[in-house]
Design a protein that fits this description.
This protein is an alpha+beta fold. Helices cover about 40% and strands about 15% of the residues. It folds into 4 domains: about 10-220, no CATH class; about 225-270, no CATH class; about 280-450, no CATH class; about 450-499, no CATH class. It is built from 19 helices and 15 strands. Bound molecules: zinc ion. Zinc ion binds near residues 429 and 434.
């Protein structure tokens, strides 16, 4: 029994997030092992949502073999976790410009692959490459064949996304999992990674190797990284406090106290609302707008109970869990409108009136061209509030109505009742959440019972203009929506937009 393979140690909950691991005897350790990894030969499984992401098939001389784990040196995996700890668990923004949002659901890995396809050979891709070094597990493989898994902070969760991308030079190995993604709380991911690290460091046979002491030093260095570093990653995508960090701390002394209170937390979660808000603001936001937003947030604080009717309609339905955030937004808008519509006979949806009747306050404010299009504030400690940025290109003419409906979606569905949200609508907010709120707004303002149009009309353009006036929406928004719900064809849409 001396050479029997040991059982896996299971750390975490395989139904959400877990790592299974064991050390085994290196078949030719002395001959080939790199000195930075020698002795750490072992098996690794990463489980998310009950799926083993490390299952692969490999074509060998004897045919196809199925492997249930990655078998490789494990020291590099732990070095990667420890070195990147603060970024891995706190960096919130994806680098570079995101491609236009279509109706598909996207994970961080999907954005990375789009960037790779678009800019793979030019300089623009460099920021993505650096980002991937901090967030893609393949950066930890040091020559091994690791599955394609990305970790990305989103709010108080970590999004884990994966796929079956073939590794160059290793075409005979196929990871079996279909592309997908899931969320787990930051706390749970951090504690699994930290526990598996402790497990590894406790293995008695490892202490003799030269890399072991170095790994211990890295752990000590990680343990010294304080809340400032973690917040810098969350707010400014850097290991040093940047502009958003200083604007936030300058404007809100409560945040400085919060930072001090959590100075030595291994992971920062949940974030207080002001921090969460700044995480999704544009790095270019003006100092005045940042101060105005903090002021609005503070003046929205209340110890009064939430309006009952609003609370009744509120439900936490995570947008990332929907197969199509777009369809989800359409469905939710119809459900809500059927309950709150004051007058179905009216030609347009009176969103101002509806929001008012739900006791949600609307504030129209100058927040600069780089400010968010709108902000949704709600929860146990806040009077429900929608902020509309007068200076945003979205909010000219009839666009304001869209923004109000969009923010209403966040207030109703992007939070649980026990938790406050402060959500700025910007390109840095979670893509699925934004997609869904956009679809919600479109359906809320243009429900099927208000969008009857004769697609065979002789002068379709005139019909559309008339309908847009009736609905109090822009012509462009109406044309897109009519095509999306099948009232007009794709060619009709293109022809109308070309005019
Ligand atoms: Zn939004």
């Amino acid at each position: 029994m001396k050479n029997a393979t040991p059982d896996f140690a299971t750390i975490g909950d395989m139904a959400t997030f877990a790592v299974r691991i064991r050390l085994i005897k290196d078949p030719d350790r002395l001959a080939h092992a790199p000195c930075s990894s020698v002795g750490s030969w072992g098996d690794l499984q990463i489980w998310v949502s009950g799926i083993n992401l490390c299952e692969s098939s490999i074509i060998t001389g004897q045919g196809m073999r199925r492997l249930e784990h990655v078998r490789w040196y494990l020291a590099p995996f732990f070095r990667w976790i420890v070195k990147n700890w603060s970024a891995l668990l706190h960096e919130y923004r994806l680098p570079g410009n995101l491609p236009n949002l279509d109706s598909r659901r996207r994970w961080a890995r999907g954005f990375y692959l789009s960037a790779l396809q678009l800019h793979g050979d030019d300089e623009q891709f460099q920021v993505w490459q650096e980002w991937a070094l901090r967030h893609s597990i393949r950066a930890a493989s040091e020559g091994g064949l690791f599955p394609d898994i990305f970790f990305q902070r989103t709010g108080d969760d970590i999004e884990i996304s994966w796929g079956d991308r073939v590794l160059l030079g290793a075409e005979s190995v196929d990871f079996l999992v279909e592309p997908g993604g899931a969320h787990a709380s930051v706390q749970s991911v951090a504690s699994v990674l930290d526990d598996v690290l402790s497990w590894f460091l406790k293995q008695p046979e490892l202490a003799q190797f030269p890399w072991y002491a170095q790994l211990r030093e890295l752990v000590a260095k990680r343990n010294k990284e304080d809340a400032e570093t973690k917040l810098a990653w969350f707010l400014d995508s850097s290991d040093r406090p940047g502009r958003l960090y200083s604007l936030l701390h300058k404007g809100d002394s409560a945040v400085s106290k919060w930072t001090q209170d959590h100075l030595h937390d291994q992971v920062l979660a949940p974030m207080v609302p002001a921090v969460a808000m700044f995480g999704a603001l544009s790095p270019e936001i003006s100092e005045e707008a940042a101060a105005t937003l903090i002021g609005i947030l503070m003046s929205s604080e209340t110890d009064q109970e939430e309006p009952r009717e609003l609370l009744r309609l509120t439900e936490n339905i995570p947008a990332w869990g929907a197969a199509s955030p777009y369809d989800d937004g359409y469905m939710l808008a119809r459900e809500i409108l059927e309950q709150v519509e004051p007058d179905p006979e009216e030609t347009f949806t009176d969103v101002d009136n509806i929001v008012q009747s739900l006791n949600v306050k609307t504030i129209i404010e100058h927040l600069g061209a780089e400010g968010p299009r709108g902000v949704a504030i709600a929860g146990p400690n806040y009077a429900p509030t929608i902020v509309v940025n007068k200076d945003s290109g979205f909010n000219v003419d009839r666009g304001t109505r869209f923004t109000i409906a969009h923010e209403l979606c966040h207030i109703l569905f992007d939070r649980n009742k026990a938790k406050s949200i402060v959500h700025p609508s910007t390109p840095w907010a979670h893509p699925a959440v934004e997609q869904r709120a956009n679809a919600f707004a479109a359906m809320f303002l243009m429900p099927p019972w208000r969008t009857n149009i004769d697609r065979n009309a002789v002068d379709l353009a005139r019909e559309v203009t008339q309908l847009a006036d009736d609905l109090k929406v822009s012509k462009g928004a109406l044309v897109h929506h009519l095509a999306n719900i099948g009232e007009i064809s794709g060619e009709q849409r293109d022809a109308l937009l070309a005019r």
